[in-house]
């Protein structure tokens, strides 16, 4: 699984989401572990706790979280939070 596919899954699973997914470390060719980092912005996060927001991302990724993704660092924002970050 590549970063574009992770972005596609997140954006398909969360209303009006914009996801930016990167590889935070060099891939290990000897292992199939896939480590990703995601920044996800969506109005669907409004009024949700951080845990609920992260659960929404995990739900959007579905089975990929247990089959293709070893680790996922994530930051989630509402559009207003994203615009106001420093």
Question: Would you write up a description of this structure?
Answer:
This protein has 86 residues and is an alpha+beta fold. It has a single domain, classed as 2-Layer Sandwich (GMP Synthetase, Chain A, domain 3). 38% of the residues lie in helices and 22% in strands. It is built from four helices and three strands. The protein has helices spanning 3-13, 50-61, 64-67, 79-84, and strands at residues 18-22, 35-41, 71-77. Strands 1-2-3 form a three-stranded mixed β-sheet. Helix 1 crosses helix 2 (50-61). The mean pLDDT is 91.
Strand order of the largest sheet: 1-2-3
Would you tell me which CATH topology applies?
GMP Synthetase, Chain A, domain 3
CATH architecture classification name: 2-Layer Sandwich
Q: What is the helical fraction, as a range of percent?
A: 25-40%
**Beta-strand share of residues:** 15-25%
Question: Please, what is the average pLDDT?
Answer: 91
Number of alpha- plus pi-helical segments:
4
Largest β-sheet summary: 3 strands, mixed
Number of domains: 1
Q: Give the H and E element order.
A: HEEHHEH
Low-confidence stretches: none
CATH class: Alpha Beta
- Shape summary: globular
Can you count the beta strands?
A: 3
CATH level 4 superfamily: BolA-like
Structural class: alpha+beta
> For the CA atoms, what is the radius of gyration?
13 Å
Cα-to-Cα separation, first versus last residue: 31 Å
Family: Belongs to the BolA/IbaG family.
Protein name: Transcriptional regulator, BolA protein family
InterPro entries: BolA, BolA-like_sf, BolA/IbaG_stress_morph_reg
Organism: Halopelagius inordinatus
């Amino acid at each position: 699984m590549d970063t574009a596919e992770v972005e596609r899954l997140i954006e398909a699973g969360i209303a009006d989401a914009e996801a930016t997914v990167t590889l935070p470390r060099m891939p290990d060719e000897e292992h199939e572990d896939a480590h990703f980092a995601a920044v996800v912005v969506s109005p669907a996060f409004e009024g949700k706790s951080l845990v609920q927001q992260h659960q929404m991302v995990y739900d959007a990724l579905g089975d990929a979280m247990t089959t293709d993704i070893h680790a996922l660092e994530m930051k989630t924002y509402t559009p207003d939070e994203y615009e106001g970050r420093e």
